[in-house]
Amino acid sequence: MTTSLATPAPAVHPLAVVDEGAEIGAGTRIWHFAHVYPGARIGDHCVIGQNVMVADRVRIGHHCKIQNNVSLYEGVVLEDYVFCGPSMVFTNVRTPRCLQPRNTSADYLETRVGRGASIGANATVVCGVTLHEGAFVAAGAVVTRDVPPYAIVAGVPARVIGHMSEGGERLEFDGTGLARTGSGQAYRRLADGTVRKEAL
């Protein structure tokens, strides 16, 4: 295991397994029964919950929280401040077969989760999609396509049902396409329906 030279040092529970070659950032906590593979890279100040698996070549940014019983398979990339709820599911092969295994890096599709996105408990994210910045996936949803920035998606398959600020407030847009939050942030709904954060 390679650790950051910055302080505080990572905290790894004695019942967790962190393979040689994994990179763990400063202040990251890894709880019992977790397994971090060689080649995995975890940023600073993350929380890796009970029974979490982080596969080879997975990339996790800074300040991410991975709740219990989540497996991050090869091809998963989490940017900073991502939340993965308990028992949510990533996949990495679209058409798995035991008869003709697809188990090389070339077979795995990248799934990217953008900065500040949240994925609810028991949701499933099909491989090859992108959850853009600030996306919010409701508990139990099945994500089969890209999720736009700040969109709330729910259902099976998941569909956009609204938008949410990075602070967790539901966005209500006025006639000009502008939404303001209680904390003073502003968001703009564009002509194509996507939402962006406005500079104040």
Give your account of this protein's structure.
By secondary structure, the chain is mostly beta strands. It is 0% helix and 32% strand. A nine-stranded mixed β-sheet has the order 2-5-8-11-14-17-20-22-23, with no helix packed on it. The chain has a seven-stranded parallel β-sheet with strand order 1-4-7-10-13-16-19, with no helix packed on it. A four-stranded parallel β-sheet has the order 3-6-9-12, with no helix packed on it. A hairpin with a 4-residue loop joins β22 and β23 (159-163). The mean pLDDT is 94.
* Distance N to C terminus: 42 Å
Q: How many beta strands in the DSSP annotation? A: 26
Order of helices and strands: EEEEEEEEEEEEEEEEEEEEEEEEEE
Structural class: mainly beta
Rg over CA atoms: 18 Å
Which runs of at least 5 residues are low in confidence (pLDDT < 50)? none
Beta-strand proportion: 25-35%
Strand line-up in the sheet with most strands: 2-5-8-11-14-17-20-22-23
Average pLDDT: 94
Per the principal axes of the C-alpha atoms, what is the gross shape? globular
Number of helices: 0
Major sheet details: 9 strands, mixed
Helix content: under 10%
